[in-house]
UniProtKB/TrEMBL annotation:
Phylogenetic placement of the source organism: Bacteria, Pseudomonadati, Pseudomonadota, Alphaproteobacteria, Rhodobacterales
Reaction catalysed by this enzyme: 2-dehydro-3-deoxy-6-phospho-D-gluconate = D-glyceraldehyde 3-phosphate + pyruvate
Protein name: 2-dehydro-3-deoxy-phosphogluconate aldolase
Pfam families: Aldolase
Name of the gene this protein is made from: eda
InterPro entries the record matches: Aldlse_KDPG_KHG, Aldolase_TIM, KDPG/KHG_AS_1
C-alpha cells in the first residue's frame, strides 16, 4: 500500500471522532469490555500501544467488537508491523518514523500514521507521500502553538497530535486548520479500566466525542 493510500485510510480513521483513545492494556481479558464502552461512548477508532505483553491479544479481542476500528500504536520495527497486522490491526501509529518501518507498512498493507516532531521530519514524510501524520510528543514540543505554526508553510499535511493532551487542552488543537483529531489516554484512567468500570469509561468517551472540531 503506497503512502498516499495509507494517508487516505488515515484520513478516514481520523474523521471518525475528535479523539483517538491511546490504550496501554495490561490485561487482555478487559479489552472487549473496554472497546465496547469506548465505541458506545462515540469513540470508534482505538489505538492499542504495543507496550505490554497483553497488547496483541487485546487487539485480537477488540478487532471483533462491532463498530470499532482497532489499530496498533508504538510500532517501532518491521516485526511489530507484521504482528499488528496478523492480530487484526487496521491501522498503525508510530512515535517517529524510520525507513525500515515505512517500508514494512507498505509491504504489509498497514495504513500508518507516522510520527513527526519538527518541520524537517514532517517534510521527510511528505516527500514519501504521507500527508496525514502524528505530531508527537505534542505538549512537550510546543503544543498547539507549535503545531499551528506548521499550517502556513505546510498546509498539505494534517495531523493527529498526541502526548500530554487532555480534555482541557484538546480544543486548542481541534480548532487548528491542520488538525484532524487528537490522541490521548485521558479517556481511559488506569484505575477505572482495572476496575472494569465501563459506565465511567463510556461517560469519559462521550465527553471526548462531543468536543467540537
Ligand atoms: C502515547 O503514545 O503515549 C500518546 O502520545 C499518549 O500520550 P498521553 O498518555 O500523554 O495522552
Amino acid at each position: 500500500m503506497t503512502p498516499a493510500e495509507q494517508s487516505r485510510h488515515a484520513l478516514e480513521i481520523c474523521a471518525l471522532a475528535p479523539v483517538v483513545p491511546v490504550l496501554v492494556i495490561e490485561d487482555a481479558g478487559l479489552a472487549d469490555g473496554l472497546a465496547r464502552a469506548l465505541v458506545a461512548g462515540g469513540l470508534p477508532a482505538l489505538e492499542v500501544t504495543l507496550r505490554t505483553p497483553a497488547a496483541l491479544d487485546a487487539i485480537r479481542a477488540m478487532a471483533e467488537v462491532p463498530g470499532g476500528v482497532v489499530g496498533a500504536g508504538t510500532l517501532l520495527t518491521p516485526d511489530d508491523v507484521k504482528a499488528a497486522k496478523a492480530a487484526g490491526a487496521r491501522f498503525g501509529v508510530s512515535p517517529g518514523a524510520t525507513d525500515r518501518l515505512l517500508d514494512a507498512c507498505a509491504e504489509h498493507d498497514l495504513p500508518l500514521l507516522p510520527g513527526a516532531a519538527t518541520a524537517s521530519e514532517v517534510m521527510a514524510l511528505l516527500e514519501r507521500g504521507y500527508t496525514v501524520q502524528k505530531f508527537f510528543p505534542a505538549e512537550a514540543i510546543g503544543g498547539a502553538k507549535a503545531l499551528g505554526s506548521l499550517a502556513s508553510p505546510l498546509p498539505q499535511v494534517r495531523f493527529c497530535p498526541t502526548g500530554g493532551i487532555g480534555l482541557k487542552t484538546a480544543p486548542d488543537y481541534l480548532r487548528l486548520p491542520n488538525v484532524l483529531c487528537v490522541g490521548g489516554s485521558w479517556v481511559v484512567p488506569k484505575d477505572r479500566v482495572a476496575a472494569g468500570d465501563w459506565p465511567a469509561i463510556e461517560a469519559l468517551a462521550r465527553e471526548a466525542a462531543a468536543l467540537p472540531r
